[in-house]
Amino acid sequence: MTRTAFFVSDGTGITSETLGHSILTQFKGVSFRQITLPFVVSNETTLETVSQINQAAIADGEKPIVFSTLVQEEHRDMLAGCNGLVMDLFSAFVAPLEEELGVRSNHNVNQSHSIQDQNAYRIRMNAVHFALDNDDGARTRAYEEADIILIGVSRSGKTPTCVYMAMQFGLYAANYPLTEDDFDDLTLPKCLIPHKDKLFGLTINPDRLSAIREERKAGSKYASPRQCDMEVRGIEAIFAKQSIPFIDATELSIEEISTRIVAQTGLTRRLK
Amino acid sequence: MTRTAFFVSDGTGITSETLGHSILTQFKGVSFRQITLPFVVSNETTLETVSQINQAAIADGEKPIVFSTLVQEEHRDMLAGCNGLVMDLFSAFVAPLEEELGVRSNHNVNQSHSIQDQNAYRIRMNAVHFALDNDDGARTRAYEEADIILIGVSRSGKTPTCVYMAMQFGLYAANYPLTEDDFDDLTLPKCLIPHKDKLFGLTINPDRLSAIREERKAGSKYASPRQCDMEVRGIEAIFAKQSIPFIDATELSIEEISTRIVAQTGLTRRLK
């Protein structure tokens, strides 16, 4: 059975999507056709949204599920009249908060960007550029500035994790690939030794690694199960010998890897 | 007045944070001390969470605001007994959904990763690597594979936007910096001409650009208002002359820039 799920927002739709995904995940047996409708900011776009939901209701023969973060009362009322099951984030949570805080909420669409947001933008941009400049051992002289340096074999998830930590937490995350040569004597490359307290390891199931590498270079030695197995054993031996904290990324999403690293290291985010 | 806000989750806390931030944004007058408590998965960690909330209640002399995405009933009940105002995402939304769908939700913590999730992980990883490999005009021969190529002056937001589109939407986003030399005759660099239909421009207020560049290279010609003004005029002239769609990134967050580009170009996400 397939249902249509709408994520409706007067902004980007990110909040509505994140919220909706998380809830829909709880219904494994049901398959959802997911549609994001961002920037619903006028009576006209709200009516279009309602009509799109109603069409899906007819096509599916069942109520679409609608996650909404619309703020303006007029638009929320219009949306409430659609033929879907509307999950209205703001009426569920904003009203009780107004009472507790004793202040009215802004009820503003497209919150204007404050100085705080501009600072956040800069912190984020700088952190993302740092992640890119210090990806894959490209540069090691900026390690002084790094909050964390991820180490692991090629395609174990270092790069997306660094980029995510930069984007989400504003952290300065570098990464350095360890290769076969490093596994012989289980010592760390020289450039890493002065920064040993910033090192954090990623490991991964060898079969999974092989599948990921196969997609990049099919049929290569690089992607072969034997090579992957050897590299994973090697890197785990280095983590053990050098007492480097690490996590197994095999069953985790990028969000989970990043959040666990922050929790485990006690790093302080630069972005809240 | 400052309140403590907690984001409580049995997972990474990302949903709880995103939801909570979005709601707290509606209360501009109130300042919130924000604390994320991820991986609350046992009776013990739930009790610790309750105790931390209660301590904040005493310290603040006011109820903390608690956003929770806890799924397990036992833990939700324990949390409900704390001295904070608990916003319980699951009881607000999961129960009505169960009724509408006619199925019980899983009520599972830490959803195991399905094949679909593994595919999503690979799409995301490949897209992030594509963004990095094709950042800042580093490589132009992969433009055939690109979904979109952002152009703009240095530090107008191209890199974080590409990375975000890769991470969030799985899109293959490259970027190419235009410089002074390109502004003379308002033509496009040769490597971009065959891919003109993939080009999308970013522009930015010159004062803002100058402030951002100043942070990178203080006192440089590169960061000077005069240079920034000239470059922004130049790039906007190219966008006009070459009929390239563009947006002004000055007042937008990375999320907003990315979402608007996807909406404007009609690109289909590879990740839902």
In short:
With 272 residues, the first copy, chain A, is of the alpha/beta class.
Q: Characterize the biggest β-sheet of chain A.
A: 4 strands, parallel
At the first level of CATH, the class of the largest domain in chain A is Alpha Beta
The second-level CATH architecture of the largest domain in chain A is 3-Layer(aba) Sandwich
Q: Which percent range fits the helix content of chain A? A: 40-55%
Hey, which two chains have the biggest interface? A-B, 78 and 78 residues
H-E string of chain A: EHEHEHEHHEHEHEHHEH
Number of domains of chain A: 2
Quaternary state, please? homodimer
Structural class of chain A: alpha/beta
Largest sheet strand order of chain A? 2-1-3-4
CATH topology of the largest domain in chain A: Rossmann fold
Q: Which word captures the global form of chain A?
A: elongated
Roughly what fraction of the amino acids of chain A lie in strands? 5-15%
Count of DSSP strands of chain A: 8
Q: How large is the count of helical segments of chain A?
A: 10
Through-space gap between termini of chain A: 39 Å
